[in-house]
Design a protein that fits this description.
Shape of chain A: elongated
Oligomer: homodimer
Number of strands of chain A: 0
Helix content of chain A: over 70%
Distance between the termini of chain A: 63 Å
Low-confidence stretches of chain A: none
DNA sequence: CATAATGAGGAATGCGGAATCCGGATTCCG
DNA sequence: CGGAATCCGGATTCCGCATTCCTCATTATG
């Protein structure tokens, strides 16, 4: 726990870390999380050894990327929630989710799983649902959605949305419309 | 192309094939399609070699099981469609799907994928959607669903339903209610 | 500039699991 | 019964990756 006169971390090291993260983000977005480590390294213009120094494990890399992206999503959602017309908030929120997910294969994998009840990536779900809760409250106050609507409903809708997008099961915008329709009162 | 006096296939061989199929069905239902071949063999009380003689490939085994189950599902759906009150048909259909999927982990994996636009397992999707089309027509005639509702909608709803169930993202019955609500006219 | 510390690279290794092989056991048929 | 024809079992091979390790290159520091 002493401070043994540590050197500044090399600049090239830092640069490489960024390169790896960026390459991973791009590859994951393009083809999901099943890409190989060597491929990430190649895309980053870096040796496998280097990649592994930065992220000691495949899982560590995935987590790093996912965390980053998730933070972006939550932030954007919150922004939407604050700025928007309350009656439209929920709709905008879901459309935004769709937009993001359809541009990021990896993310739709993560989100689909994350909305499940198992522990990992919990904070992301919590954060998203916190935003959703606010939107629901406001919408409910205006009578835009039924009294019985909960964040659990939104949770399921998002999970389904991710699946529809990931499997290209159809027009996700229409899916969102249907889901929103189902939340309306009466 | 001759008929070189073929023997009757051995009875034990046939018995073993059934055992394997049954064991695979049970394991797949329990824990999805990621179970190992050796595990299937063990559960079937059969050597790995035997398993591979019956199903030369992991994929072949999965396909055999899935095909079987899918046929069951389609048949049940058609029965429902024929027998039921037209206004309730679609609801019953989706509830039935939910019931089946929540009892069969493997099936929910297959169905989620199958509702996607990629080719394989096409016949199943076709068959399911054919039933759905009938149900939609009747419902539409009674004004139970909007004019704009299509089988594509049902396709996405089923895909989402499978995802919700597979990931335990919430109460799937509620999901079905919301989806149905979204299909109602106006 | 010298040199100690840190990082880079990528061949080599380890590992999980599908698929193969073949000596021995079983079953069919005359 | 006898002896093919078939089938069984599971050790073994093969393969695709992730991960490790060691040598060499690059950078920070005085």
């Amino acid at each position: 726990m002493s401070t043994p006169r540590t050197r500044k971390t090399r600049t090239d090291a830092e640069r490489n870390r960024d390169r790896v993260l960026e390459a991973a983000r791009a590859l994951f977005a393009e083809s999901g999380y099943e890409v190989q480590m060597s491929e990430v390294a190649r895309a980053a213009g870096v040796g496998i050894g280097t990649l592994y120094r930065k992220f000691p494990t495949r899982e560590a890399l995935i987590e790093a990327v996912a965390e980053h992206r998730a933070a972006d999503i939550v932030a954007a959602a919150r922004r939407l929630a604050d700025a928007d017309d309350p009656a439209q908030g929920l709709a905008r929120f879901l459309h935004h989710m769709g937009e993001v997910l359809s541009d990021d294969r990896g993310m739709s994998e993560v989100v689909e799983k994350a909305m499940g009840s198992s522990e990992p990536r919990e904070e992301t779900r919590e954060a998203l649902l916190a935003v959703a809760a606010e939107l629901i409250d406001r919408a409910r106050a205006r009578g835009a959605v039924g009294q019985e609507v909960t964040t659990g409903d939104v949770n399921m809708i998002i999970c389904g949305l991710a699946a529809v997008i990931r499997n290209e099961a159809g027009d996700w915008r229409r899916y969102v419309e249907v889901a929103l329709g189902g939340l309306r009162p009466l």
